[in-house]
Amino acid sequence: MSLFLRRIAKAAPIAFSNAFRGESKSNFNCFRVPVGAIAAITGGISYYYYFSSTNLVHLEAINEENSPKVALNPDKWIEFKLHETANVSHNTKLFRFTFDPSAKLGLDIASCVITRAPIGQDDEGKPKYVIRPYTPISDPDAKGYFDLLIKLYPEGIMSQYFAKLKRGDVVEVKGPIEKLRYTPNMKKHIGMIAGGSGITPMLQLIEAVLKNPDDSSQVSLLYANVSPDDILLKQKIDTLAASHPNFKVFYTVDNPSNNWRGGEGFVSKDMVLKGLPRPGDDTLILVCGPPGMMKHVSGDKAKDRSQGELSGILKDLGYTEEMVYKF
User: Membrane-spanning regions, if any (predicted)?
Assistant: First the structure.
């Protein structure tokens, strides 16, 4: 590991604690239903968008009186420079982007950013882009950098764009895009069901709760993956659970190894009953993962990306739409 990687691993242990252990030797297997469809970092789907002009805006920090500098702009595409990458698993990488070291990213809990990459021109000669949402997993209070955890799919247009980036290359980012407005102690019990790279918005919220001594929320995570090798940042998650009594985690995998001691198979009613808070006015269940898992657990979002109707095992167990949020 380079001196730089050791230094940033020490400076940002939550994002990097398990990111420099090399690639897993296991072969990549696509998710199977219900955990088995392609996972989206925020539960969204890549889409194309057309702009009449590129109108690139270089990195800037908003410096208003009595306001902290922030690097993001919800109305402009900002160029962020790639500083370093690290392997997290056999098909996932962590990308660190940098900006003004005196500024914060400007990310709220819980929110994501959107990225875009050029993919040529349309029939009218106008620039064409692929746009993709991602949830940064770095501390929102960190200055001068942010980290994206990205699963690299062989046929993924945006993920392959990231895979080819070299140090010093730039990526256009806009945001933040608010998903769920979280306030400390908004719910006494917070349950989370994540599949694959759907762990990223959960990590963002977990860290916000655990680093706040005035937040007494009890957080429970049910994390599903194809195999033990696919579990992202497991060492960090386990460390957080071991050091914070208000956070617990349970893992389940489709293809367990011989020495696997966690759950086996898809997320089940029994897993939810044993690992997550029961339905109630002071309970919030968060769900993020591949489409198959979403359909099985809670039902996917509506076509307009609103929350949509609650279905699946959460509805069967008595949770209501007011108790569930789909990322």
Answer: 30-50
Helices 234-243 and 199-210, axial angle in degrees (round to 10) = 30
Measured between alpha carbons, how far is 95 from 86 in angstroms, rounded to an integer? 7
Rounded Cα gap, residues 228 and 256, in angstroms: 7
* Residue 35, domain CATH: 2.40.30.10
For the annotated binding site, the residues are 132-134, 149, 151, 158-159, 200
Are 239 and 116 in the same domain?
no
Using the predicted structure, report yes or no on whether residue 89 has a pLDDT greater than 60: yes
| Domain end marker among 146, 178, 210 | 178
* Mean pLDDT along residues 20-48: 34
Annotated binding site for FAD: 132-134, 149, 151, 158-159, 200
Is 183 a domain residue? no
Tens digits of residue pLDDT in 270-323: 999 999 999 999 999 999 999 999 999 999 999 999 999 999 999 999 999 999
216, 157: one domain? no
Residues 220 and 267 in one domain: yes
* Residue carrying the six token digits 């890549």: 46
pLDDT at 135: 97
User: Which structure tokens are listed for 296?
Assistant: 């099985």
Tokens of 184: 């400390």
0.85 exceeded by pTM:
no
